[in-house]
């Protein structure tokens, strides 16, 4: 049997069949061992020969053939300490299943190993360093996605991240005249005027902004702050929070607003507060003829004066008309501008109007065209005393002996206001703001400041706390009926009702009047007055309608989005979005026409069934879904109004068919 012919090399080496060469070899080996033993001084020396830790490559080989080691020296190996770490013995592994021939081969290999070992000095103490465990790397895994708010502030303008966050209830009493200004920096005259108008405390936006804008000493109230950096200002505060009063102007101011109605409203505020201060306030909206406005704005239309010749200290205007005057009115100049105020800034910056902003900014800077300094006849064309200091270095007088020649800075301070201030970096960059300081009036949540800023950036707008919001989802054919239900069953009057266009405004007013006539048979209440207000009406008529509404002679003003921004009518107790707004900004401005200056107010949005998903998503994205109450109006609720409604609908159809 093959197994019988297999013998272990150990047995083989001890058998009588040893070859002569082998015997010779073993004899020599014995002799060498004896010589070595004599030479080996002691164990410690041997240890030294193998380094401090006692390990060497030969150690490993020794381990593999312990049986051949000199037993006279004490041998301590790592395996002795930890037998489990001992590598398998090569010899045993090789033995298994080998035939004789293989054995002979193996024997030769063995002998080679033994001879090699014989030449190596045998270590007596072996310290084996355990192989350090391989480092364990974590399994690959997707990193946690950054939060929405963390993403929102990525790459944001540092000025916005550093915004001053103002609590909406941070109010401050306005001290009466004759006392200290209480830190408000308001003059005695202004405090008196404010008290006379019933304003006895400053709202949050005013409490923060006024001390920032108003000089603390007379030294700072000079017209041109040549060497002092003026920081621009961006204000984001809810609707009706008093941003207009925070726009205190001194010296020369230009206030740009998106509509004529807002221009008129701001003018009224200036007239009330500026009374007795000698400030001349002008407006330019296109409401009057161009030549009429020119005569109001400048003293001299015939000559061309580099310093300009203004008749007003403050100009309140729409951007289109402003550009008309910049291009077409001689001596109309913005070089002396100290304040540039852009109200409803997000809307104005979104409109190009002949690139109005670039033209306005360039008009506040020095001209680079020296030819402007000369008349067409070649004579010098300026009165240097009235040229703005920042324009002086451009003059062909290199040696004007004045400190103003020390490269004065442009002293125009820009101020942006809106309840929905733009976060579009491209638009902000176009304004070339100088170290802008942001003020953000927003209710704090428990989540910390970073989240408040990201809320602003993510257009999660802050609403007046006194506003109650509702939505009614209905079929589109039932929408007028739902509106009548609000007015006649829920007493929604003193209301602004927003539709999507001038045309639907006119149509709804007609239907309302027809319905009310039919309904009056069933009611003894005095009729409500409803009127339409849209860009379809002439300016004069619009003005008169707004006055009647302010005087509460009109109870329901059905309007387009023309007056969805900025208009301040204190008694508006309801806002109805008859057509749902298409974006959150529009929603914020519409509902903000009520619940102003701390008063309570109610907003209603009628949402057609097919729009409901979009509208709800819009609210959800702005984190505002929970604040809007969903109301159900059943057939039973409107049953009493239905006959009059159906009749008035038929009448309207006939009326349109006839016209
Ligand atoms: N400190 C105050 N105390 C009492 N009423 C104030 C105060 N400041 C402003 N108001 C009144 O609050 C109302 C709203 O102010 P304002 O029109 O300035 O709001 P706004 O922030 O500009 O709103 P919007 O974003 O809608 O234009 C105005 O009628 C104004 O007279």
TrEMBL record:
The keyword Cell membrane does not apply. SUPFAM superfamilies: P-loop containing nucleoside triphosphate hydrolases. CDD domains: DEADc_DDX51, SF2_C_DEAD. Residues 56-65 have a biased composition (Acidic residues). The Q motif is unique to and characteristic of the DEAD box family of RNA helicases and controls ATP binding and hydrolysis. Coiled coil: none annotated. Residues 487-639 form the Helicase C-terminal domain. Keywords: ATP-binding, Helicase, Hydrolase, Nucleotide-binding, RNA-binding. Residues 1-10 have a biased composition (Polar residues). One of its GO terms (molecular function) is RNA helicase activity. This is ATP-dependent RNA helicase. Its EC number is 3.6.4.13. Residues 1-93 are annotated as: Disordered. It comes from Leucocoprinus birnbaumii. Residues 224-439 form the Helicase ATP-binding domain. Residues 15-37 have a biased composition (Basic residues). RNA helicase. Belongs to the DEAD box helicase family. It catalyses: ATP + H2O = ADP + phosphate + H(+).
């Amino acid at each position: 049997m093959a197994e019988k012919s297999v013998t272990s090399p150990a047995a083989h080496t001890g058998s009588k069949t040893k070859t002569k060469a082998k015997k010779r070899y073993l004899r020599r080996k014995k002799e060498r061992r004896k010589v070595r033993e004599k030479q080996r001084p002691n164990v410690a020396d041997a240890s030294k020969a193998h380094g401090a830790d006692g390990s060497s490559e030969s150690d490993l080989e020794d381990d593999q053939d312990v049986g051949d080691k000199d037993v006279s020296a004490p041998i301590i190996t790592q395996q002795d300490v930890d037998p489990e770490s001992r590598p398998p013995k090569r010899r045993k592994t090789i033995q298994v299943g080998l035939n004789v021939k293989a054995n002979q081969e193996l024997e030769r290999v063995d002998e080679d190993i033994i001879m090699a070992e014989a030449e190596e000095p045998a270590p007596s103490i072996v310290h084996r360093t355990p192989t350090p465990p391989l480092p364990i790397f974590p399994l690959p895994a997707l990193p946690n996605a950054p939060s929405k708010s963390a993403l929102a502030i990525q790459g944001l303008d540092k000025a916005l991240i550093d915004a001053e966050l103002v609590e909406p209830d941070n109010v401050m009493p306005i001290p009466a005249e004759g006392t200290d200004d209480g830190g408000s920096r308001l003059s005695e005259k202004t405090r008196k005027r404010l008290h006379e108008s019933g304003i006895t405390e400053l709202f949050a936006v005013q409490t923060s902004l006024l001390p920032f804008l108003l000089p603390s000493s007379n030294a700072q109230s000079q017209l041109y702050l040549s060497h002092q950096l003026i920081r621009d200002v961006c204000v984001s505060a809810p609707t009706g929070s008093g941003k207009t009063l925070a726009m205190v102007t001194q010296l020369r101011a230009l206030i740009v607003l998106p509509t004529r109605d807002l221009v008129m409203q701001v003018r009224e505020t200036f007239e009330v507060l500026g009374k007795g201060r000698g400030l001349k306030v002008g407006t330019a909206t296109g409401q009057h003829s161009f030549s009429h406005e020119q005569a109001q704005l400048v003293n001299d239309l015939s000559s061309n004066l580099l310093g300009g010749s203004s008749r007003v200290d403050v100009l309140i205007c729409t951007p289109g008309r402003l550009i008309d005057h910049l291009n077409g009115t001689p001596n109309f100049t913005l070089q002396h501008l100290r304040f540039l105020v852009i109200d409803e800034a997000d809307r104005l910056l979104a409109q190009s109007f002949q690139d109005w902003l670039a033209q306005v900014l360039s008009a506040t800077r020095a001209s680079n065209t020296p030819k402007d300094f000369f008349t067409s006849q070649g004579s010098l064309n300026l009165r240097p005393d009235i040229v703005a200091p920042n324009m002086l270095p451009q003059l062909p007088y290199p040696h004007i002996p004045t400190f103003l020649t020390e490269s004065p800075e442009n002293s125009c301070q820009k101020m942006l206001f809106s309840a929905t201030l733009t976060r579009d970096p491209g638009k902000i960059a176009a304004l070339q703001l100088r170290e802008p300081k942001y003020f953000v009036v927003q209710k704090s949540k428990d989540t910390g400041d970073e989240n408040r800023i990201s809320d602003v950036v993510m257009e999660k707008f802050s609403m007046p706390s006194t506003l109650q919001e509702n939505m009614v989802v209905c079929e589109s054919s039932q929408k007028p009926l739902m509106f009548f239900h609000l007015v006649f069953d829920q007493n929604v009057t003193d209301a602004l009702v927003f539709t999507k266009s001038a045309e639907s405004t006119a149509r709804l007013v007609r239907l309302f009047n027809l319905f009310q006539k039919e309904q009056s048979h069933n009611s003894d209440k005095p009729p409500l007055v409803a009127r339409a207000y849209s860009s379809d009406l002439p300016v004069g008529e619009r003005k008169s309608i707004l006055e009647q509404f302010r005087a509460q002679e009109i109870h329901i003003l059905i309007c387009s989005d023309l007056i969805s921004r900025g208009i301040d009518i204190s008694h508006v107790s309801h806002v109805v979005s008859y057509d749902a707004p298409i974006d959150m900004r529009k929603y914020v401005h519409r509902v903000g026409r009520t619940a102003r200056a701390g008063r309570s107010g109610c907003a209603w949005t009628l949402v057609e069934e097919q729009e409901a998903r979009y509208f709800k998503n819009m609210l959800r994205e702005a984190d505002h879904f929970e604040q809007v109450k969903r109301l159900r109006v059943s057939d039973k609720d409107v049953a009493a109004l239905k006959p009059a409604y159906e009749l008035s609908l038929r009448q309207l159809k006939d009326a349109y068919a006839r016209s």
